[in-house]
Structures are given as C-alpha cells and as structure tokens.
Amino acid sequence: MQRYGFELLVVCIGKYGDIPKMPVFPPNKGQEVYGGKVMHTLDYSKLDKEAARELLKGKKVAVVGYKKSAIDLATECAQANQGADGQPCTMVIRTLHWTVPAYWIWGLPFFLFYSTRSSQFLHQRPNQGLLRNLLFPLLSPVRKAVSKFIESYLVWKLPLVKYGLKPDHPFEEDYASCQMAILPENFFSEADNGKIMFKKTPRWWFWNGGLEFEDNTKLEADVVLLATGFEGKKKIQDLLPQPFSSLIVDSSGIMPLYRGTIHPLIPNMAFVGYIESVSNLQTAELRCKWLSRLADGLFKLPSIKKMLDQTSEEIEIMKKTTRFYKRHCISTFSINHSDEICEEMGWKCWRKNNWVLEAFAPYSSQDYGEED
Q: Is residue 107 part of a domain?
C-alpha cells in the first residue's frame, strides 16, 4: 500500500450515475418474483441504439418515474412500437412534476421569470439584509402570480388535465428544485395515439407478470425500466473513509458545501459539480475558477463557523421554497450565489455593460470571463 499526501483533494465524480437509486419492496414483492426483465436507466444508457430498440420493440414496457429520463424513455419506447404490432408503454408515476414544451411562456422568453437579476429579486437569498427581509413577505403575491402565469400557459398548451398529469404543487417548487423537464416534441402526440399511457400510484410492487398497485389493479409488463434516479450522496460516502464519510450529510439530509464546493468540516477537500442550478456548466465553471484561486492562496476560507452559517442559511431558504429541497438546487438565487463567489475572488459582481442588461438579461459563462 502506498500513501500520498496532498494539501487539497478535489473530487470531480459528479452527483449522478454509478449508484442507482432502487425502490424498496415488501417481502416477496420485489423483482425476484417477476418473470420479465428489470433494468435501471444506468444500464439502459449503456445500450447502443439497436440493442435499445430490440429491448423495447413489441414489448409491454413499464417506465417507473416522471422526470426527464423517464419521459425520454417513454418516448423512445413509443417510437420503437410504431405499427400494428406495437405495444403501449405505461409510465408509472408516484409524484407529478411540471413539464415545459419550450423555453417560451405566452410569447415571452422563459428567462424573464427566474433567470434575471430583477426576477430573482423577488426571491429570498442568503445575506439579504434587513430591508430585503422586510420586503420578502410583501413580494409573496408577485411570486405566486409568476408561478400561476406559467402554470396557466402549461395547462393551456399541454393536455395535463386530460391525462391527469397536472401537479398539485406550484411550478415554482419544481423550478426551485431543478426538476423542470423539457418535453420531447412528440411526447403527447404519442400519448394521443395510445402509445404512451399513464398510471398514478403512491405505491407499487412486482408480481410474476408485471406490476401491482395500491388500488389492487395489475399491469402486465415484459420489461420494467426504472427511472428512479441515483444515490449521489451514497456515491461520495462510499468513496471516502471514516470519519469523513460520516460528515458528508447533515441532519437535514443535505451535503453542506460552502460556495457549492468546500465542505466546512472537511476544508481540504473540494467537490465539483455537485450542487445543481439551472445552468450547471456555468456555475461549475465559476466555482472551479474560485477553487483555483483558493488553491493558489489568493484568498482564504472564512472560519468553519462562518461557512456553516452560510450553508445553513442556504439550506433553510431551499426548505422554505420547495418541498423537494433535498435535491440541493440554488436556481432561485443563482445570481446572488455567483455574486458572492465574485466578491470573494475580488471581482466585481455586476458583470453587464449597462443597468438595463444587468436587470433584465440572463447571465451566462461569457459574463464571467477572466478579469485583468
């Protein structure tokens, strides 16, 4: 065994992939009693186009989930089952989420609602000061109106009511947890043609011929595809030895990361690409620039207490904004997150050429170019 010493360890294994999140079933109701094929999206993604088509064609397929991977899988299944011999694909849905056909809402670009400095002014953010704390409750009707405005378009544009797919929670909660999925163009047309069907259920399990549901109905299935997500935290915990692995997740079930990168209790270890935003590449790139300057000694981390206070405040904001807060998404205060990173690097926060663009234009990677 060889040991190596480092002043800083950077973990760049991402949040998704490697360890699938598998459903847990009552005794004798798991996949061991099922006579068909069960596959997680982790394994499905490794198939080439021909193998995937062969798996789906002419088969009764159940897709468990209703996020982006599940929606794409159901569409692929429908396309593989065109013609008289084609079988419908059934999406088994426990939790509904809002889906978007395109980045336009009632003729307005989507970024105007959540991705500009003016739109994010409506939302709570860390270190916002006394005045903003007083204004925040007063702005609640505006936030709700924005969410309702978007929901009205989606209900008009998409057959959500027809198929019982209209979520009970506000659109804002899905956006704040980075769960807004863009629909494939032909998704609902395949549903109209009977190639995609939907089954909502809080619980399900296996029987020999397929899936059984809490309402005592059964679904015959030759193939069950699990779009049930990944164990991002477990992947990191399995990677690290004790005592580090036991420190990864706090009491809220979230991994606290200062500036989305440094765990306050493990300050010599950085995690890149873990916290989500609407534009993961942009935020990850900026954090990498911040991290490189930290490694070069251009600035120092604050105390452990100050880092924990910062991460705790961010987590509390997520809890207040969405019931899906454990996804650890900063989408409603992403610009403020970038501002604080810039401040710590000694960069100016406002990156646009004029105040109109600063207020109403979205930020991109080009706005965070190197400063002289």
A: no
- The total domain count for the chain is 2
* Euclidean distance between the first and the last CA atom of the chain, given in angstroms as a whole number: 45
Give the DSSP letter of residue 183. Answer: P
Long-range contact list for 211-216, CB < 8 A, 24+ apart?
211/62, 211/92, 212/29
Q: Which domain holds residue 269?
A: 9-16+232-368
Please tell me whether the overall predicted TM-score, pTM, comes out greater than 0.85 for this model.
yes
For residue range 231-284, list pLDDT tens digits in order.
Answer: 888 888 888 888 888 888 887 788 999 999 999 999 999 998 888 887 777 888
CB 259 within 8 A of CB 341: yes
| Statement to judge: residues 316 and 283 lie in one domain | yes
In 135-222 the beta strands, taken as DSSP E runs, fall at: 181-182, 196-200, 204-207, 210-213, 218-220
Coil vs helix vs strand at 89: strand
Would you say 18 and 239 are in contact if contact means Cβ atoms under 8 Å apart? no
The pair of structure tokens assigned to 111 is 């970024």
